[in-house]
Design goal:
Structural class: mainly beta
Distance between the termini: 16 Å
Order of helices and strands: EEEEEEEEEEEEE
Strand order of the largest sheet: 6-13-8-11
Largest sheet: 4 strands, antiparallel
Shape: elongated
Number of helices: 0
Oligomer: single chain
Length: 141
């Protein structure tokens, strides 16, 4: 028996007469009730910063992993971004891209990467002219 609960927030942001539609996905919660056990997403670590960053983490508990990236740009009318790439043994497991251009509203954006497997993973964050970025790691067990 499976139960699914998905939470998503969507907001319209307007700035100086221009309107941009920014989708901000929150963490979805999925519960698997099977044989009396309940599985769900559990946050295992979080990181924040403003510039490039490298993270190594070991997944030994859950068989599914979710990486949630969010960032806020500085107001400079240039291109701002946060690229997140997850790899294992040199293979790309997934990536996300948050970016703003000169016409984008100065607002927080988020995206996530989800994949299966256990072992040691490398997360590479490339960031340019942000007020901050935040990265959260979740395991499903």
């Amino acid at each position: 028996m499976l139960f699914f609960t998905i939470n998503e927030n969507s907001s319209d942001t307007s700035s100086s007469g221009s309107v941009g539609n920014i989708s901000d996905s929150s963490v979805s919660s999925i519960s698997d009730v099977s044989g009396g056990s309940t599985k769900s997403w559990h946050k295992v670590d979080s990181f924040n910063g403003v510039g490039d960053y490298e993270i190594t983490f070991n997944n030994n508990g859950g068989n599914r992993i979710k990486i949630v990236s969010s960032a806020m740009p500085i107001k400079n009318y240039a291109d701002n971004y946060m690229y997140t790439t997850v790899s294992k043994n040199g293979y790309n497991m997934g990536s996300s891209q948050l970016s703003w251009n000169s016409k984008s509203a100065v607002a927080t954006k988020s995206d996530n990467i989800e994949f299966s497997g256990s072992g040691t993973y490398s997360i590479s964050i490339s960031a340019y002219e942000l007020q901050y970025w935040n990265l959260e790691i979740y395991e499903y067990y």
